[in-house]
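The data layer described in this paper is built around a simple, fixed record for each protein. Because each token names a local backbone shape, the row as a whole describes the fold. We quote a single record here, exactly as it is kept in our systems:

***
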Amino acid sequence: VGCFMEDSIALDYLEDMRELINANLESIIIEKRAIYGEVAELSGRILLAGGKRLRPILAILAYELAGGQDLDEIMPLALASEFIHTATLVHDDINDESLTRRGQETLQALVGQPKAIIGGDWLFVQGFGLGGRYRKEIVDVMANYSSRLASAEFSQLDHVLDLSTSPEDYLQIVRGKTAGPFAAGCKSAGLVANASEIECNALFEFGIELGI
């Protein structure tokens, strides 16, 4: 019974975090719509279409694990990870010619490929605008993982329908697209909490293992 109650409390906490993240994302999009119009409206619709919000939740948990206590301090970084992730999904859908995601029309299905590319770029810029509020050391971590993510995307396209793709090739792509962002988010959160170098590296390795 005790274990069940602990699991229930943990799940409730994660759901509360997800709702808080969704509320913050929605607030940003409402603000941006008034400034940027259609690109914010339609790109924001993709951002708010749902999802598990794993990356921002993981950043918040890593921050708290590292001793951070002020959610306002970590929230911009957590939200940045979701904006950047959604940008990559928009571009993935273009590459895959997908018309639906999460039960809704993709951005390219709504407005066509040229505008969808711009919409993905807009989401990415918003993500870096949020992440750019932090000190250089943290921004460098973000920039590095975003660059590695792009490199992994390039590699993935090279291996589409390639039956000679090795397990090593596959794992390298996964490390770039999933494990890398997880790890960078955890390490960045530790840096925001002013954790030690050993602690930040441990959070990074945890993110790698989680992503693989």
Remarks:
- The beta strands are 100-101, 104-105.
- The longest helix spans residues 2-36.
- The chain has a mean pLDDT of 91.
